[in-house]
Design goal:
Elements (H helix, E strand, L loop, with lengths): L14 H7 L2 H16 L7 H25 L1 H6 L15 H22 L2 H25 L3 H5 L1 H4 L1 H10 L4 H24 L1 H7 L4 H4 L2 H23 L6 H23 L2 H6 L3 H27 L4
Helix pairs in contact: 2-3, 2-9, 2-16, 3-5, 3-6, 3-9, 5-6, 6-9, 9-10, 10-13, 10-16, 13-14, 14-16
Length: 306
């Protein structure tokens, strides 16, 4: 890992640059899934405590993003889609990103313990460690299974939200974890299909780089098949219901069909049309998780569970 500092004549950092270090787009999914996990839990939480809990989970997610950007500054400087990030562009130094990440980590964990419970706080601390150390510093640069194992970090937030309400873990929160965990690989592998050169230049051993696009396509389809049963199983638990099941059925049929089309694609044809099918599957994957969790939340609010 190379620490990239601001170069002479670089634009002065603005508030938005420090916000960008927290990966707000990624953090939005963290916040939403944690909120859903907390909301559908069987124990009611005071609205103010719930707000504070989600806020500190969000800060923990942002801390993970800042630590990731600090360590991955050398990779981000090479990849086209990340070159404009605050550190590679010279607007923020690596030291500032590290300091922000560590500070927010400590604040988020301590405050979550105080407003919710220490089990949830310990879970948040482990999640930050897993993303910043296990995934960013080890898995990402070492194995093509990086996004498979590392995807657990993004799957923990609904379990943390559930733990804030219950102080523990339930089959429902485990299935919410599984939904995100098995969704993550096909989501990122679809992106890698049309961004392979970026990962190749940066030396990141994504599956497309180490095993090629054909193998990646087969893996994408396989994961859509593995994912669907967990999505349906979640609908059969205490947090499930007819609304969620209807949404899950439609989404998983579309996801499996999309994965099948991706797998069956000829590489020459894909290149000729600029990976149109792959890009469509990637866009579908962006909605997949959000709509599952939205269905859980709406169903809970309107009270139409089993």
């Amino acid at each position: 890992m190379t620490d990239i500092n601001a170069y002479e004549g670089a634009p002065e950092a603005e508030f938005g640059d420090y916000v960008a270090l927290l990966k707000p787009r990624v953090m939005s999914l963290v916040v939403f899934t944690a909120f859903v996990g907390l909301s559908v839990a069987p124990i009611d939480v005071h609205p103010f405590i719930a707000f504070c809990a989600v806020l500190f989970i969000a800060l923990g997610g942002g801390a993970s993003g800042a630590l990731n950007m600090w360590y991955d500054a050398d990779i981000d400087a090479v990849m086209r889609r990340t070159q404009s990030r605050p550190i590679p562009s010279g607007r923020v130094t690596g030291g500032e990103a590290l300091g922000l990440g560590l500070a927010l980590s400590g604040i988020s964990v301590m405050m979550l313990g105080l407003v919710a419970n220490w089990f949830a706080a310990a879970f948040l601390a482990f999640t930050i460690f897993f993303y910043a150390v296990i995934y960013t510093m080890w898995l990402k640069r070492w194995t093509p299974q990086n996004i498979v194992i590392g995807g657990a970090a993004g799957a923990f937030p609904p379990m943390i939200g559930w733990a804030c309400a219950t102080g523990g873990v339930g089959i429902e929160s485990l299935l919410m974890f599984a939904l995100i965990f098995f969704w993550t690989p096909p989501h990122f592998w679809a992106l890698a299909l049309f961004m392979k050169e970026d990962y190749h230049k940066a030396g990141v051993p994504m599956l497309t780089v180490t095993h090629g696009r054909t193998v990646t396509r087969r893996h994408i389809f396989a994961y859509t098949l593995v994912l669907a049963p967990f999505a349906i199983w979640l609908g059969l638990t205490s947090v499930g219901g007819p609304l969620y099941m209807a949404v899950a059925a439609v989404l998983n049929i579309l996801f499996i069909l999309g994965g099948w089309r991706v797998m069956r694609r000829d590489e020459d044809a894909a290149m000729a049309d600029n990976y149109t099918v792959e890009r469509r599957f990637f866009r579908l994957s962006l909605y997949y998780t959000f709509l599952h969790f939205l269905a859980l939340l709406v169903q809970h609010w309107v009270g139409i569970g089993w």
